[in-house]
Amino acid sequence: MRTVRVTGAEFDVRDEGEGDAVLLVAGGGASGRVWDLHQVPALRAAGFRVLTFDRRPLRNTQAAPDPRTAAVELLYVLAELDLPRCRAVGVSAGAEVVQELMLARPGLVTGAVLMATRGRGDLSGRAMADAERELAAAGVRLPPRYAAWQRAVLNLSPATWRREDELLDWLDLFEAAERAGTAPVPVPADGEPADRLAALGRVTVPVLVLGFEHDLIVPPWLCREVAAALPSARYAEIADCGHYGYLERPAEVNSALLEFLTGAP
To answer: What is the mean pLDDT of residues 121-145?
Structure first.
C-alpha cells in the first residue's frame, strides 16, 4: 500500500496484480475495500492490475468533496503513481468522479464502467441531500438497529427483502457497522449538483453505464440519461437489485464488467 498526500487529504492506495490497470472508485463515504469481496478477485483472475483507495481528510469534516474536486485530487494521485492511462470503474458518487476524470484529462481513462451514476440533480436526490445535511447539523445519531433498517430500505432490492435469510445477514452487517462506527455517513456537499449531461458529450472513449433496477438513490432513468449523453456508451440494467447492486448481484455485475473491460482498449 502507498500513501499519497494531496491538499486536505491523504490517499491510501492498494495496487494489486499485474496487467492493464483498472482504477476502482467507491461511492461517497465507502471504503475502497468494498470492492474486495467480489470485484477485485474477479478482475485479478481476468489478468488486470487493480487499484483501490481510501481517502482520509486531514481536517475534521464529514462532507465529501464534490466530484470535480475529487477528480482533481485523483489526477494528482495517479500522477504520483506514474499511471499515464487506465480503465476506470465507479459506483454512485464514485462514478461521477470517473466522469469528471474523463472530462478533465482526455486520454487518461481509456474505457469506463459507470454504475448507478447521474449527470444532473433531481428532486428526489435534492430532498435526500437536504434531509441528510439537516440530520448532520442537528447532531442526531440514529440508534444502530434503526439505522441498519433504514440503510437496508434505501439500498437493497425488494427481491432481497423477500429472501429473509439473506436479508437477516444484511441487517446484521449494517447493524454491526453502525455499532462499530464504520458505517459510511457522508454529508452531501452544499449546493445543487451541476448538470453535466452536455459536457459528457465531449467524452469519446467506450463507456458501459449500468443501472440497478430497484435503485432508490440513483434511479435507472438517471443512468440512462448519462448513457444517452455519452457518444460511445451503451446502457445495461441489472435486475432485482438496489443501490448496492454490485454487492447484491455480484455475478451479474462482474459478468457485464469483465465483458466490457476485456474488450475496451
So the answer is: 89
Let me know if 243 is a catalytic residue: yes
Asked whether the CA dihedral 163, 168, 169, 170 is positive or negative, the reply is: positive
* From 20, 157, 214, 215, the catalytic residue: 215
Separation CA 228–CA 92 (nearest Å): 18
- The H or E element spanning position 139 is none
Note the pLDDT tens digit of each residue in 154-204: 999 999 999 999 999 999 999 999 998 777 666 776 667 789 999 999 999
Whether 31 is catalytic: no
Contacts of 115 (CB under 8 A, 6+ apart): 89, 90, 91, 92, 95, 209, 210, 211, 212, 245, 246, 253
Q: Letter for the amino acid at 183?
A: A
Packed helices 164-180 and 144-155: angle between N→C axes, nearest 10 degrees: 130
Task: Tell me which of 20, 66, 92, 157 is the catalytic residue.
Answer: 92
Q: What is the dihedral of CA 242, 147, 161, 218, to 10 degrees?
A: -10
pLDDT, tens only, 202-213:
999 999 999 999
- Phi, psi dihedrals of residue 97, rounded to the nearest 5°: -65, -45
User: Cell 472508485 belongs to which residue?
Assistant: 25
Look at the block and give the residue holding cell 468494498: 34
Backbone angles phi, psi at 254, to 5 degrees: -65, -35
Residue with cell 440519461: 225
pTM to 2 decimals?
0.94
92 is catalytic: yes
